[in-house]
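Bit of a strange request maybe. I'm writing a small parser for structure token strings and I need a real example to test against, not something I typed by hand. Could someone generate the tokens for this chain?
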Amino acid sequence: MGEEALGFRWLTEHQRRAFVRALRDEVTRLSDKDQLLTFARRWLYDHKLLIEHDRALRSQIAVAVDLLESETGTSIATTVPSDLLDKWRHALVQLRPDGQTQQSWLWEAPAKHSTVQIAQVFERIDLLYSLDVHKHLVDLSDITVRRYARQLASRPPSVGARIKEPRRTVEVACFLRYCLFTTTDQAILMVQRRVADLWRMATEEVPDTVNWADMYKELLANLAVLAAEDKLTEGELRTRVVELLAASQLAKPPSRASLVRERLFEGIRPVRPLLAEIGKLPWRAEPDNPVQPALNQLLKLYAEKARELPIEISAPRLGGVWSAAITGDDRGKAMRAMEVATLFSLRRAVRNGSMWVDHSLVFRGRARLFFTPERWAVEAKRHYARLDLPTKASTFLAPLLTRVRAGVAAVATAAREGTLRVDNDELHLTAMPAEDEDPKVIQLRSQLDQRLGEVQLPEVILQVDAQVRFSWIMLGREPRSTEELLMVYAGILAHGTSLTSAECARMIPQLSAVSIRQAMRWADDERRLGQACTAVLEFMQRQPIAATWGRSDLASSDMMSMETTKRVWQARLDPRRNTPSIGIYSHVRDRWGISYAQPFVLNERQAGVAIEGVLRQERM
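Reply from user aminoacidic:
Good idea to test on real output. This should exercise your parser:
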């Protein structure tokens, strides 16, 4: 009777098949069984179906996980020769000359972007190429590859060697594939930064050009002298003025940019091996891209050990600023100009997506970064339904256009009434007179402060967790002990404060540095941490007072610089504080609360992360 009154019912055979399909689809994106159990309960509840016992749900989850591993293992065993798989397993546990295993060495991030570090990154790529990793596992999804790679990396090589098949094969193959992805990204990013350093060093060596204000003052003084000569006829004055202007043009010094380019021609020698290494990557480009032919020509000249550019090579499409040097009589200088032009054009092509590498996560083709037309045709309706969006753009834009027209009409009315003024394509609101603060507001604020009193941060964390249970989300289950609950808090605080596990252990005597380090690995799961942050944000927005803070459909975004250690290879020097820092780009709701945050490299363009923060909002 109760289930009928609430509208819940038992699973039918058709609904069970739909539930199994949804569970198998979720297994490809999520590995934690406790979180899969939460997903299964939520799916049944959303579909008004009675939730089965945990044992039955866990049994279906285990079957789905085993099926995914079995299918992935079968796919790998079918496409990769068995002797090559044995070679991969042996390569991970093999020791390097410094005593470090190759598994740990491949997983390490570079400490900085020096020439030695770049050489080590390319050494990793060469090792992965020698194992033919780039030739296999092309059909595996990036989510699956990342998932199993991180599981293997979280264990020591000695423990990983004891994992049973087919999981051992899946983890080893995905680990090597993922290492190839991340190492390629690291190499390209380091080369981009090296190119920026090359330009910066050349700029520092170029002296300041002539003072243009002094040149123009001198020209005006000469013109004034000519104007003061009464004996000159009109024709003679015009001729003298033309001669004076021509002489001034001839005295015009070269621009600072041209001088920097000349310095680059001399500074290209130290990075020539870098250009040779980056050229070995399997670059792909759009049909009309001029960089790939120029890069191939340089690699051919390097193989021939040529130091001068053949006269028949001109490369005019690399940019007009380089053409004069490339086509000049000095063929040695032309060779260096060709190298500089190719290096800078390659950096620009990689950033705008016109050149890419297939085995990369960041710098790959647009069809792999986004949806291919074939995949979009199959999955479009599912993604529209997930975002609760109509399939036609006109249906989505209709209410927005209505609001735009109403807003424009309101602006026109305000302009006619004098409340708003339009001047030089800008809107100016009439300044509102300052109001005296209401004594009742002062009294209410005082009463609220007295009622709340002083509150410590641990009390706030515990009270919010009691309402939201974000610790349950982080663990995927209920915390089993007080120590485990503290570990969740410590892991988040350690990441948020950029403190080490040892430093946090000094503040939390109940926990050891080892347990905090384990909790920090829990917070490394971006999906799990994002769900916990979303739960806290939704709890905050549900409070009645939040409605007075602003609109629910507005947000702002900006980047702030967060100080970090110089050992983080993505860290850059903050120009204001002169300290190693990394950017955190945040989207803040109009009703407060951070809806999305992403780490970001300083001094880079912010348009991409700003758009991504909007696209990540699944509730429009």
